[in-house]
Amino acid sequence: MITWRKSSFSGTNGGCVEVAWRTSSFSGTNGNCVEVAHAPAAVLVRDSKYADGPVLSLPGFGWRVLVARLATDA
After folding, report:
1. Which residue, 40, 39, 37, 1, is CA-closest to 21?
2. CB 9: neighbour CB atoms within 10 A?
3. Do residues 36 and 19 make contact, with C-beta atoms less than 8 angstroms apart?
4. Which domain holds residue 62?
5. Over the stretch 7-48, which tens digit does the pLDDT of each residue have?
6. Which end of the chain has the lower number of beta carbons within 10 A, N or C?
7. What separation in angstroms does the CA of 27 have from each of 15, 69, 74?
8. Around Cβ 35, how many Cβ atoms within 10 Å?
9. To 10 degrees, the CA torsion angle through 37, 32, 1, 41?
10. Is pTM beyond 0.85 here?
């Protein structure tokens, strides 16, 4: 599932930045989901229950390290 969201940095002049949030394929249907979006200089991660809450922003290298580490701990 992809959800588009306008960036809080977008103005009202039509020059908007939008990011597409993708739900993990490992997420169930109980609402406990991790969502990821690709921004120009980072990968964004959030909890789907708190769409307006905090967002973790990782540079591309940091994202790859996190995913590799999670894969080895699984």
Report:
1. 37
2. 7
3. no
4. 2-73
5. 555 556 655 556 688 887 777 677 778 888 888 888 998 888
6. C
7. 33, 19, 15
8. 22
9. 0
10. no
